[in-house]
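DM from R.C. (forwarded with permission)

"hey, sorry to bug you on a friday — could you get me a structure for this? deadline for the figure draft is monday and I only need the backbone to look sensible"
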Amino acid sequence: MIAIKLAFKNLIGAGLRTWLNVAVLSFAFVLMVFYNGMIDGWNRQGRMDTQKWEIGHGQYWHPEYDKYDPYTIQDAHQPITPEIEKQIKKGDLTPILLTQATLYPQGRMQSALLKGVDPNQKILDIPTSDLNNNQNGYSAIIGKRMAENTKLKVGDEVLIRWRDKNGMFDAINIQITAIFNCDVPSVDNGQMYLSLNVLQKMTNMKNEASILVAAENNSLAPINGWEFKDTDFLLAEFDAIIQSKKAGGTILQGILLIIALLAIFDTQVLSIFRRQKEIGTYIALGMTRKQVVGIFTVEGGAHSILAAIVGAAYGIPLFLWLDTIGLSFGSNSSDMGITIAEKIYPYYSLGLIVTTLIIVIISATIVSYLPARKISKMKPTDALKGKLQ
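My reply, with the result:
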């Protein structure tokens, strides 16, 4: 207790030097919380958006389907059994049929992936109900990116060519009935959505599907003939991106923290050099060398406590403001090819703040202890004379 009282008294007495160190350390603390909160916010939003728009709460794949190999799409389909049909009617599953096609917008040629989806499904946020708007022919919906790439608008018709189950080519004009906006590129880029029944008829794959998307209330029980892929598997790529961003940010945060700690280290070295008589007085009054070392160590480590208080004074209002307005990445953020919203709302968990605070306190304490070790080698008589060995 005496060491803590003396440490804080000496810190306050140091004046401007103390507050400069505290300011630098508090900035490092706030920046660490801010960056990790931004990454965690991006992670939460990205995972939620991907689940809502694409993967649901897991998917059942045809055994031959591989999303990284387009050549598997042609044969990756099989009949929907009565057991699966019951779950579809209950809303626990929604089937998706995949087939490749070629579009010819304005005379140009562009490849696309056709996805047959039930217009009445409620599992995914894709506005498939818009597929019911066209009563006079074939209709499709596309995303904003796909519309920009193909120069298609609502009401336009585009010629598409595909190959059916037997390998026969066919072509037809399809009208675009809706264009939706989505933050998940894999739901938008090169994708065209048709009614499941229409695509089954076009490809001669009656009552067949390639993927079954599971709802939140689905039991996720195994289905014979289908391979279940959980959300961890389906989000593995996104998680890898988040981890790489965190690793890159750790380097920047580490450099900033080292700069702040160097300031504390230099301050402690200078303090020990200038306060030799004070150190000798402590020892002469009966304090052990360990106790004196403890005073200087606590004194240096106390910078982190003050830094946390100062950081909270301006950091909390800043974080609350950012949580309200979000961080804008512009309308072109989707062009990055990864799931990222135009605005990211940081997520500051209690665990993040406590972990960051512990790292800063431990680091500051260790850096303060290193120069303080020299005190244990000092002789009281030399210290009283102002002589440092």
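R.C.: lifesaver. The chain is about 50% helix and 15% strand.
me: no worries. The first strand starts at residue 59 and ends at 61.
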